[in-house]
Design brief:
This protein has a two-stranded antiparallel sheet with strand order 1-2. Helices cover 75% and strands 4% of the residues. The chain is mainly alpha-helical. It is built from 14 helices and two strands; from the N terminus they run H-H-H-H-H-H-H-H-H-H-H-H-H-E-E-H. The protein has one domain. Helix 11 runs antiparallel to helix 13. Strand 1 and strand 2 form a beta hairpin.
Length: 317
């Protein structure tokens, strides 16, 4: 009897978890923004331009490798690995180029159309508004990444890259799109105009990706010039950089300065010190998820402040 009486109490958290997951998936803003974006002529044009740019770059990289004689001297696997790495970096750059333009106007656009106050006085919670806008924006970028998989699959057939490296490259690209979209969404709620939010989002994205990678690589190369025992230390700026994460996942162990395969992390296990190794892409993905959580929390706070201001204004009238 006691066990039977405890079963309903143990089962009560499950429906609550199901309802929470249902609220994350079933969101009216995801449907509205997704349908409105896909019904316009811009969506197929952007997808076509994205695939044409990737295809042209893959053809150019393959032509350069064939012209240099890599296929004759090193084999198809070397050519496939080089082309795949270059294509993964270009795809990451295109994702960073497209995401701020898609997400930076998600909330500021509602303000410019004078529909934000209508959305705030509705029964939709602030978190659902932010989550719906973020998912609707990032879903289009994920669609671009998925549409480019046949291009990567054609290069993957040459060899040089295994399945885990393929998955890591795509995972880092998706989490970079998610983090960039979250930052752009926060700026969209912070600034009143879409133009200002877009410009600042592009600046932050460039500084956090190409800027940190360039500075970190230069500092690592400068440190390698100093005589020392063992490999040169990797600059901390590279530990959370998506470009460095993709390069280390695809070219780790190649001897290129700045491509440290693992980062040691020490801890105490009982009485003896032990160590674990963390891949740079794991640090990058974890840092990007933290950025997403902070930006979503900040955007929700801004919308709640705006909602409280709207409620006070309505009550005074």
């Amino acid at each position: 009897m006691s066990v039977a009486g405890e079963l309903p109490e143990m089962a009560t958290p499950v429906p609550g978890l199901v309802r929470a997951l249902r609220r994350l998936v079933v969101n009216p803003l995801i449907v509205k923004d997704g349908l409105s974006r896909m019904r316009s002529w811009r969506a197929p044009v952007v997808i076509a331009v994205y695939l044409v740019m990737l295809g042209l770059f893959a053809w150019l990289a393959f032509s350069v490798e064939l012209g240099s004689g890599s296929l004759r001297f090193y084999g198809a696997a070397r050519v496939g690995g080089t082309v795949f790495t270059a294509l993964a970096v270009v795809q990451l750059a295109l994702v960073c180029l497209f995401t701020p333009g898609v997400a930076a106007g998600a909330i500021s656009g509602e303000r410019e159309r004078q529909t934000l106050d209508v959305l705030l006085v509705s029964c939709v919670p602030s978190f659902s508004i932010v989550w719906g806008k973020l998912v609707a924006s990032v879903a289009f970028i994920v669609l671009l990444i998925v549409s480019a998989l046949p291009v990567f699959a054609a290069v993957f057939l040459l060899g040089g890259i295994d399945g885990s490296q393929f998955a890591v490259a795509q995972l880092v690209t998706v989490t970079t799109a998610l983090a960039t979209g979250a930052v752009s969404l926060f700026l969209s709620a912070l600034f009143r105009r879409t133009l200002a939010a877009t410009v600042v989002a592009y600046g932050i994205t460039f500084a956090a990706t190409a800027g940190t990678w360039l500075v970190g690589t230069i500092l690592t190369a400068a440190a390698s010039a100093v005589p020392r025992a063992g490999p040169p230390p990797t600059n901390p700026l590279l530990f959370f950089n998506p470009i460095h994460a993709i390069l280390t996942a695809l070219l780790g162990g190649s001897g290129v300065p700045g491509l440290t395969r693992v980062a040691p992390v020490y801890y105490l296990a009982g009485q003896l010190p032990a160590s674990i190794t963390i891949e740079p892409w794991e640090l990058t993905v974890a840092a990007q998820l933290v950025v997403v959580a902070l930006c979503v929390a900040g955007t929700v706070w801004l919308l709640r402040e705006r909602r409280a201001l709207t409620s006070r204004r309505t009550a005074s009238i």
